[in-house]
């Protein structure tokens, strides 16, 4: 009997191998009520399921790590050296286009900025000087606005007067009055005939038209006043360095390559690169 039991190996109190436990279960298969007999031993089925789940999770984690490494290597491998200056920009005398400048500033692309030579390199490619600013007497100044555009957002078209008339007609009270006017016209003409029976209905229609015209006119004038006020609000005067000295100008006259001077409380007039200064804090929530 001892030699027979030795074939199954030793069953440890803890951490016995699955093979040994399975052999003992097979050996004691004739035991009455085996579930009760093995209630204090490991559940081999659940242990196998847990091991399979652990292997699956490890494989998923391994795949995620490999994908992350591949993505990181791809991002690192994308070099800004693929950038090609458009022909029209080169013909105008510059070495960088507006889209490339926008991607550097908006995307905080430090690698692109480094590739172009930093702030000094960008200034050189824009044909400007970090000390003297733009030279308005050169031929490049006239082409600069044609290549890079103006420092102004494209404004939406002003809504016409008839749009405000249509919006005024959407009032629920006026709709109810319109239905009442229609009913009054039908009943009045049917009972008293034309034109005596239509007086009440036409009076209601005239009142509706008067209210609509007054409301639409008021809203239209307010929209024009608000647009003019918004234009005045956006007329910001800034200090820039051009031709070697400081001067004041409107933000609408600002061009790529201008050296802008900011003080405490000033509004940043455009996206740009920080040249020099200290303790710069910008509130981007407004």
Automatic annotation (TrEMBL):
It comes from the Eukaryota. Keywords: Magnesium, Membrane, Transmembrane, Transmembrane helix. One of its GO terms (molecular function) is P-type calcium transporter activity. Pfam families: CaATP_NAI, Cation_ATPase_N, E1-E2_ATPase. InterPro entries: ATPase_P-typ_cation-transptr_N (IPR004014), ATPase_P-typ_TM_dom_sf (IPR023298), ATPase_P-typ_transduc_dom_A_sf (IPR008250), ATPase_P-type_domA (IPR059000), Ca_ATPase_N_dom (IPR024750). Residues 114-189 form the Cation-transporting P-type ATPase N-terminal domain. The chain crosses the membrane at residues 172-190, 196-217. GO terms for cellular component: plasma membrane. SMART domains: Cation_ATPase_N (SM00831). The keyword Magnesium applies. The keyword Transferase does not apply. This is Cation-transporting P-type ATPase N-terminal domain-containing protein.
């Amino acid at each position: 009997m001892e030699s027979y039991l030795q074939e199954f190996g030793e069953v440890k109190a803890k951490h016995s191998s699955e093979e040994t436990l399975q052999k003992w279960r097979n050996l004691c298969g004739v035991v009455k009520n085996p579930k009760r007999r093995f209630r204090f031993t490991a559940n081999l089925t659940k242990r196998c399921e847990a091991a399979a789940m652990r292997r699956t999770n490890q494989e998923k984690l391994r795949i995620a790590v490999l994908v992350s490494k591949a993505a990181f290597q791809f991002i690192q491998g994308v070099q800004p050296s693929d950038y090609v200056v458009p022909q029209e920009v080169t013909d105008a005398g510059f070495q960088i286009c507006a889209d490339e400048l926008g991607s550097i500033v908006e995307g905080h692309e430090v690698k692109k900025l480094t590739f172009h030579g930093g702030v000094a390199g960008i200034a050189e490619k824009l044909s400007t000087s970090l000390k003297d600013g733009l030279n308005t007497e050169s031929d490049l100044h006239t082409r600069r606005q044609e290549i890079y555009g103006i420092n102004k957002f494209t404004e939406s078209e002003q809504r016409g007067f008839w749009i405000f008339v249509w919006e005024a007609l959407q009032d629920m009270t006026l709709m109810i009055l319109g239905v009442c006017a229609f009913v009054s016209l039908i009943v009045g003409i049917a009972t008293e005939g034309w034109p005596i029976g239509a007086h009440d209905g036409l009076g209601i229609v005239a009142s509706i038209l008067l209210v609509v015209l007054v409301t639409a006119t008021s809203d239209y004038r307010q929209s024009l006043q608000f647009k003019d006020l918004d234009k005045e609000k956006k007329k910001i005067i800034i200090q820039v360095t051009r031709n070697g000295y400081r001067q004041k100008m409107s933000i609408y006259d600002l061009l790529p390559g201008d050296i802008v001077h900011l003080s405490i409380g000033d509004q940043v007039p455009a996206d740009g690169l920080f040249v020099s200064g200290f303790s710069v804090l910008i509130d981007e929530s407004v």
